[in-house]
Amino acid sequence: xxxxxxxxxxxxxxxxxxxxxxxxxxxxxxxxxxxxxxxxxxxxxxxxxxxxxxxxxxxxxxxxxxxxxxxxxxxxxxxxxxxxxxxxxxxxxxxxxxxxxxxxxxxxxxxxxxxxxxxxxxxxxxxxxxxxxxxxxxxxxxxxxxxxxxxxxxxxxxxxxxxxxxxxxxxxxxxxxxxxxxxxxxxxxxxxxxxxxxxxxxxxxxxxxxxxxxxxxxxxxxxxxxxxxxxxxxxxxxxxxx
Length: 242
What we know:
- By secondary structure, the protein is of the alpha/beta class.
- It folds into 2 domains: 4-37 and 151-197, no CATH class; 50-148 and 200-241, Vaccinia Virus protein VP39 (Rossmann fold, 3-Layer(aba) Sandwich), CATH 3.40.50.
- 29% of the residues lie in helices and 26% in strands.
- The chain has 7 helices and 11 strands.
- Strands 4-3-2-5-10-11 form a 6-stranded mixed sheet.
- Helix 1 packs antiparallel against helix 2 and helix 4 crosses helix 5.
- The protein is globular and about 60 Å long.
- The N and C termini lie far apart (47 Å).
């Protein structure tokens, strides 16, 4: 069976060096990528996130969802969109917590992996892409942004960009010059410092916000200050309200 590494090696052989974000996209979401071929969260999966620890995270989100519905004067077209839904663990928790309330929203679970979409619970809509607007309600994502492909900048006497090449039948990282560096990048950093350039995450946030006509966007991610000397670090969560 062909692996993601085989797919990457063939692409590099055909077109030359592969930029890091393109490499990451194939490794995670390509035909033979991690998520497409069965990689998942869960106690029997590859990693554990907050929804797999217990029902508390889903219950807290359900309370927020109900509060938003009340704040918006209980609209009848209230929609909940979960992006990066995985096998539907969080959808189950939120649905169970909402059951005793008077809110019965349209629940849309967005998940790129068809195999994981097949595990979603009954009573929700499953799709591969963020639905277009207008959306009135809550759009949220738990540990999604850090899974979106990003470009990688490395300080090596100056800022350079990471690419993937094949050498001696191995995938290796090489550094190339970058014509247009982001304005927020510091002019200097310790040798070997590495900073993710998260253009796709920024684009996703803009797309999600533009789809919302009323309601909130919630994004949960977790980070450490390992690159604090190079660039500002994000907080543990962010919220935007329309």
